[in-house]
TrEMBL record:
This is PAS/PAC sensor protein. It comes from Flavobacterium saliperosum S13. NCBIfam families: sensory_box. Pfam families: PAS_3. Signal peptide: none annotated. InterPro entries: PAS, PAS-like_dom_sf, PAS_fold_3. It comes from the Bacteria. Residues 47-127 form the PAS fold-3 domain. Gene3D superfamilies: PAS domain. SUPFAM superfamilies: PYP-like sensor domain (PAS domain). CDD domains: PAS.
Length: 216
């Protein structure tokens, strides 16, 4: 829980009011056609979570409200991914990240994010809205887990600055941003699936088109 003690300086103390679940290596069983949604204030404090969020995370709504969003942070997630996510959100930019989340049961669930950002009349960020969809297991196993494991190892050994440098180098080598990389691996999977099903693959015209097709 966060307590505002000074409105000007916005100093917040974070208190753990719940026991962090012990992670177990089992996936949450959920309807992967659904969209997990939440709304936060500009600090990432949860103000709303939809039924799907509640079902998948295993928390009751009264346990989630007013909690920092890291209530579902999984220890397998490298810090650098959240750093880059927040760097973009604070600039008012949408971001598509693949995230492993921790349910109350200790089980995990992988999602890809999509954000809407609301601002007041002065242009200050007031709220963030996050929508999340499931990610195909093959994308996780083939591309995401190996990269995140490496980032986490680097972080544990040498800190987040080192893991950020590694991530930058990894993406520079492919001449891509993180979001381009995510789009490519998701698209590659979609094409493979479509080929398997002998279906027609619609040409992906741009990044915005790709993600809006995915989230609609
Ligand atoms: C709207 C919104 C949605 C978020 N969704 C998630 C999420 O699904 N999982 C997660 O671990 N962090 C999510 N975050 C990021 C968390 O605020 C937090 O940065 C992250 O869990 C890492 O925790 P830490 O910053 O305490 O290291 C979200 C943030 C915002 C603003």
């Amino acid at each position: 829980m966060y307590f505002a003690i000074d409105n000007e300086l916005k100093i917040y103390f974070k208190m753990e009011v719940f026991e962090r679940p012990v992670p177990i290596d089992k996936e949450v069983s959920w309807d992967k056609t659904k969209t997990i949604m939440s709304k936060t204030d500009r600090f990432g404090t949860i103000e709303y979570a939809n039924e799907v969020f509640i079902d998948v995370s295993g928390y009751e709504d009264y346990e989630l409200m007013s909690q920092p969003h890291n209530i579902i942070r999984h220890p397998d997630m490298p810090k650098v991914i959240f750093k880059v996510l927040w760097d973009n959100l604070k600039k008012g930019e949408n971001y598509h990240a693949i995230v492993k989340n921790l349910a109350k049961s200790g089980r995990y669930y992988w999602v890809i994010t999509d954000f809407d950002i609301s601002k007041d009349e002065k242009g200050n960020i007031v709220n963030y809205f996050a929508r999340r969809k499931a990610v195909p297991q093959e994308v996780i196993t083939k591309h995401i887990e190996p990269l995140y494991k490496r980032l986490l190892q680097i972080e544990n050994a040498s800190g987040m600055e080192a893991s950020e440098k590694y991530l930058v180098g990894y993406l520079e080598e492919q001449n891509k941003t993180y979001v381009d990389f995510i789009m490519e691996i998701m698209n590659e999977h979609e094409k493979a699936m479509a080929q398997q099903n002998a279906a027609n693959v619609t040409k992906v015209e741009d990044k915005k088109g790709f993600f809006s097709k995915f989230f609609n």
